[in-house]
Structures are given as C-alpha cells and as structure tokens.
C-alpha cells in the first residue's frame, strides 16, 4: 500500500508523517510526502525532532506532487484548514482523507514553546499513524466506504487518545 502525505510546502508536517509512517509500517507499505508548492528544503527542527526520536530521514527531501514515482492508494492531507491554510486537492482515483495539524514551523514564542509545538504535532501525527496501522487488514481490503470512514475518524485523534 502506498500512502501520500500531502501539504503545501512539504517541509514539516508531511515530512514528519512520511518518516514516522515508514519507520512503523509493515513490509510492503510505503509512504511518500509531497507539496503542491514545495519549499525546496526540509525544516531543521522537524529533522532534529525525528533524529531525537530515532526515526531516520536519510534520502528525504522537499518535493512536488508532480511526477511522484508511485501512484498512491491513499492521500492524507495534513494542512491546517482550520487556520485558513489552503489544502491542496489531489485529483485522481485514490482514497482521500484530511488529518489537519497546526504547522509548528509557524509558531512564534520562546524556544520551549516552539519545541512544544513540534512535539505536539509529532504526537498527533504519530497517534494517527499508529491508529491507521492498527486497522484490521480485512477493513483495508474490503469495504472502501468503511475504510474511508475509519481514516476520517483517525483524523480527529489529538495525540492523547490511545
């Protein structure tokens, strides 16, 4: 199964999602991340956070959704539309869901406040990815509507729920 984590800049939230998913996913499952308007660089704090968690990021880079090497089965947008952020709309015959997360790279404050924002985004994304990976395989292969409903429900997890 191929998963695409999509946002606008592909420097922070989608990167975190790609790295965490690939770190936890079973063999044969793969995540990529991309942006509709990639920044061309990965966020240094996001990379440092992932390194501190023991999650490799070798070979990752900020990339466009144009010309991806795979066709995704599932597209997960992670932009924060609640904050007025424009989410890219992936067109194509894929299952789509939205897991909006506040962009920690836009947080202003003390170093501790910024670090806390990155930790919060990581916790939310990791909880959602763990919930995705815990879905029963028969649900993934069977009823597409039930799979979509499960993914949409996962998008509401806030990182503190099991």
Automatic annotation (TrEMBL):
The keyword Oxidoreductase applies. Its EC number is 1.20.4.4. It is an enzyme of class 1 (oxidoreductase). This is Arsenate reductase ArsC. The lineage of its organism: Bacteria, Pseudomonadati, Pseudomonadota, Betaproteobacteria, Burkholderiales. It comes from Massilia orientalis. Keywords: Oxidoreductase. It comes from the Bacteria.
